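cron nightly-structures :: item 1 of 1
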Amino acid sequence: MYKKITNLSNLVKDSYEWRDFLAKISLLSFGIFLWHKELVIVASVLLILTWILCDGLSHLKSIIREPLMLTILFFCIVLLLGTFWGEIPGPNPSKHEGPYSPISRQFRWAKYMGLMLFIPYLQLLNKKNLPWAVSGLVVGYLGVLFAGIYYQFFLGITGIPPLKMLYLHFSAALGVGILLTMYLANSSINKKVKLSSWGIGFFLLLLQLNIVGRGPILATIGTLFLLLFLLHRRRLKKMLSLMLVTTICVMTIAYHSHSFKQRFSQVITEIEQSAEGKNRTSTGERIALLKVGLYAIAQQPWFGYGTGMAKQAFKENASIYQNGQYKDVESYHHLHFHNDLIELGVYLGGFGVAIYIFLLWGWFQTLWMRKLGALGATLVCFIFLGGITDTFLFYQQITFMLLALTAIVITSRETKQGDFLLENSLSKPCHDPYKN
């Protein structure tokens, strides 16, 4: 009898050790493969299965205590409910329009569901698993950085073709790196960390300003000045000095960047063409989508047209708005409104805009309650500004990266303070009771 109990005890202990190792591998692989459109699916499935094996489902009730988890759940549930209204297009349209199939047009909104991965990722993190998660993110980010430099500056190819990564996504990834290094440079008390962070930050800024993506650049610069204000608002002279130095550096890099000057001068030309009724340009398209999107929201201001109905809402309203002035854009735009607020406003009306703001509020609150308000405001501001010129939350690589960073910061902060706001059973689902 004693031998059977001993064997059972050893079996349970081995099970805990095996699941703990699987959690480490899941966190590591997710950080590395989140940049690849196919491999990230495999990494996400592994993450979810590991979370289930580690008994994460039994702790779902406890996630209500975490603002970001609560707002993500609410955001996704409302989007799912939004699929119950609005007409769904037939499976056999008369012609194929755009680069995606009819089915993918309707369910493109499902990318928002990727926010749910924050739940298993955070729950699998603990003090022992933290280095694995950090290593995965660092290795993955460095791989993307070197690949982007190689394709952009040595081969002259925008984006990263092997990863199917657009230049906008790469520019946004650089923006995240810039903001994080600048945060470290302005908040760390270690001189070596401060100097190296300043150097890395301006190097990444140099790279970003030589990439054609305008939206991520503006979001990065705008958020950077907010970060400097938040960290140094009580020391006016230092704040103004840092802002002046940053402005000079940005202007100097931009002045010597051919792609930057060419891209932004193109905006003026495209705005003039749009005023003449020529909308088949990047800027002209966005102006048209902005106007038609706002008009569409005005027609259905409360609950919108239903989740996933961006294409249909545009077709319906572009034909009547200003006598159909922008209906020619319908065959050109990429199935969304290039703006998170308008996209969700078209889906769910004012309610959609409210849940988007609620999501950002929850993100900020999660970091603010750990006394990381400046970092929380920086991430939220970057997402919001990035979402003005594009559907930023559709950038799954960037969204996953920001969620992973948030989870790592939370765990790291609580580990240092020894004050877990999450229950120990929630933050350590694979805890081995045989170890201290």
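cron nightly-structures :: done
The chain has two domains: 1-88+109-160+290-425, 166-276.
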